[in-house]
Specification:
- With about 130 residues, this protein is mainly α.
- The chain has one domain.
- Helix content is about 45%, strand content about 10%.
- The protein has six helices and three strands; from the N terminus they run αβαβαααβα.
- The protein has helices spanning about 1-10, 30-40, 55-65, 65-75, 80-95, 115-120; strands at about 15-20, 45-50, 100-105.
- Helix 3 (about 55-65) runs antiparallel to helix 4 (about 65-75).
Length: about 130
């Protein structure tokens, strides 16, 4: 957890946006409540936008290494009302000028839905995306 917090702090992140459908984790410190507390300890705010998480069938495809299928499932999900509402919230947060970071389970940005979320934001708001890797 400390390496994760160090990377966020060094990057100047002010807000961590959790885009996991399920904000729990077997990794110590990464479940929603504990994560928010750890972030608070380094003055980083936390918000969970569940609607921008990958649906269960997409998560299953990703675990099986079927990244193309996960991508199709997530892009379809991104058109739903709940995803569009949370995407609008994220766009407002980005537009506010705060430096933020997206968080999900997948370490590799090439196989992760957060890259698709970032692209959706970039199609509306000019923003620079940097992948942080602890």
């Amino acid at each position: 957890m400390s390496a994760f917090l160090d990377v966020l702090t060094e990057a100047g992140v002010e807000l961590l946006v959790d885009v996991r459908a399920v904000a729990s984790s077997r990794r110590p410190g990464f479940s929603k409540t504990k994560l928010a507390a750890n972030l608070d300890g380094v003055d980083i705010d936390y918000i969970h936008l569940r609607g921008l998480g990958t649906p269960a069938d997409g998560r299953a495809a990703a675990r099986a290494g079927r990244h193309g299928e996960m991508r199709e499932i997530f892009l379809d999900h991104l058109t739903t009302a709940v995803a569009q509402t949370d995407l609008a919230t994220l766009i407002d947060l980005v537009s506010s000028g705060r430096k933020l970071s997206l968080l999900c389970f997948e370490a590799d940005p090439a196989h992760c839905h957060r890259s698709m979320v970032a692209s959706a934001v970039q199609s509306i708001v000019p923003v620079t995306v940097t992948h942080l890797i602890p």
